[in-house]
Amino acid sequence: xxxxxxxxxxxxxxxxxxxxxxxxxxxxxxxxxxxxxxxxxxxxxxxxxxxxxxxxxxxxxxxxxxxxxxxxxxxxxxxxxxxxxxxxxxxxxxxxxxxxxxxxxxxxxxxxxxxxxxxxxxxxxxxxxxxxxxxxxxxxxxxxxxxxxxxxxxxxxxxxxxxxxxxxxxxxxxxxxxxxxxxxxxxxxxxxxxxxxxxxxxxxxxxxxxxxxxxxxxxxxxxxxxxxxxxxxxxxxxxxxxxxxxxxxxxxxxxxxxxxxxxxxxxxxxxxxxxxxxxxxxxxxxxxxxxxxxxxxxxxxxxxxxxxxxxxxxxxxxxxxxxxxx
Length: 326
Ligand code: GYE
Fold this sequence. Notes:
Elements: H1 2-16, E1 34-40, H2 46-59, E2 65-71, H3 76-89, E3 93-96, H4 105-113, E4 118-122, E5 135-138, H5 141-155, E6 162-168, H6 174-189, E7 193-200, H7 205-218, E8 224-227, H8 230-243, E9 254-259, H9 262-269, E10 275-278, H10 284-296, E11 303-305, E12 310-312, H11 318-322
Parallel strand pairs: 1-2, 1-3, 3-4, 4-5, 5-11, 6-7, 6-8, 8-9, 9-10
Antiparallel strand pairs: 10-12
Helix pairs in contact: 2-10, 5-6, 7-8
């Protein structure tokens, strides 16, 4: 089917020449591999890099499959372009890791009209019609946030007032929405908890370092850092050091981070991070299994969540850190 669409694509390209810049015709493969178009968010974090690696490693080397990945550099518009290109190329399957939840109705309807099945991976999409996609495989981000606040409840006596600095990821992404929701609802329930500020770190180390450095010039009264991913935490740690603020076990600021990558777990083991909430990026094999079920006509659940937990300095060993795959 792909060869036929590649010919169509060539005709379309000749038809619009200069006006259609950016469209790339992938070479039709000699075999009739099952072609998957994958629109990835970007490469903003170690989590994302591990996720990309898991996807490519799973399909690479399997002659039955061909995975075409497009990196959206964290822009939803780039995802729309990628998806439309996949449709034009006549791929057999599409996987989308959506940047943000909103705004997907039109493009998902276009995919459906083209008769291509879609898996939404990692974050979710907010569409009225759930039939627009086959399944959503990802994390329970609210559960992750709740693990973090439960830990904080166990750490903070109810008569102690605390100021929480909240570093937020890409606004509108499920991981941001749900992790924020868990914190905000917990703060609403605890009169002694206060969010002193919400800073936008876009899930990147560089952005977090920049906003934290600026913030710490005027504000040093922080008891807890609630950072919505590890890379922002690393940026914040650097800013704390430069501002002379101590953190981790025995320090001024308790640090809560999400993802639990190997580097963050090492900091946690070494007492520099207090809590790592796990978010597993290794979706490749699970996605492949779902696609295989789909191809055999087997039923597929609408939502697939992965099991995740949280780690403290006391609960992890060096062996555990070393064995971390991401
Ligand atoms: O926590 C962060 C990444 O959506 C789960 O995106 C993902 C988040 C992850 O950039 O590191």
